[in-house]
């Protein structure tokens, strides 16, 4: 029994449970932008596309982080020997099978919603694999990683294709945000650069500034404001600390804060485009994600 439990925990560590919830939050924010929920529903089956997209993003994100550890197995053996693959708890073959199944689930679930969703899902998978294999150590890597999140937001919006065409540009916002976090994360082991942290601060300001502007345009600044304030605090508090002392542990906290703050950011999107209760529903994912982050690594 202890072997089965250890193995199961190893697989859970590979898929980063806390991060999966941030991916679901992306989808829920995209759905808010799409306006899909504005129409009335007489049957819970009418909401099946929402469930399918949530399943799709969990499969795609899970597959991406599993293959991240597959490609990094040799490096992790030196820098993070406690991880499931270098520790021998999960073999590389087992991880490849898990990651492949997760990608398959994600793509199939997306195609059940529509062609646009399926094509975006394929784009997310391709972007994740390119980052895992090559982008991580390249200068363009942070933008590559950001593209995965940008496409994930579009995956939620794809429920209403005319809206998707109108708001395709919104993918730029998570691209910039995640690119900044990814650039910061490169100093997680040996310490980072203050210059990189300052550039990230500018990128962060652009992100929450853009959300605020859209909230004003939609005449929903007041409902969005509490979520924006929470988002700003969550990302800037650890970032400022890292600027004062850019050590590995402080960089790690800044990265972790940035990842978990994705839920607050997505709640702000929802409040800016839909209703306050729906935004609060997304925000409920935050305490669960924080609890999972204490048990499982987010990077």
UniProtKB/TrEMBL annotation:
Major location (coarse): membrane
Ranges that cross the membrane: 20-37, 44-67, 101-131, 143-160, 166-185, 197-217, 223-242, 278-297
Membrane topology: Multi-pass membrane protein
UniProt keyword terms in alphabetical order: Cell membrane, Membrane, Transferase, Transmembrane, Transmembrane helix
InterPro entries, A to Z: Prenyltransferase_related, UbiA_prenyltransferase, UbiA_sf
Record has Transmembrane helix as a keyword: yes
GO molecular function: transferase activity, transferring alkyl or aryl (other than methyl) groups
Subcellular location as annotated: Membrane
Domain of life: Bacteria
Name the record gives this protein: Polyprenyltransferase
Biological source species: Chitinophaga agrisoli
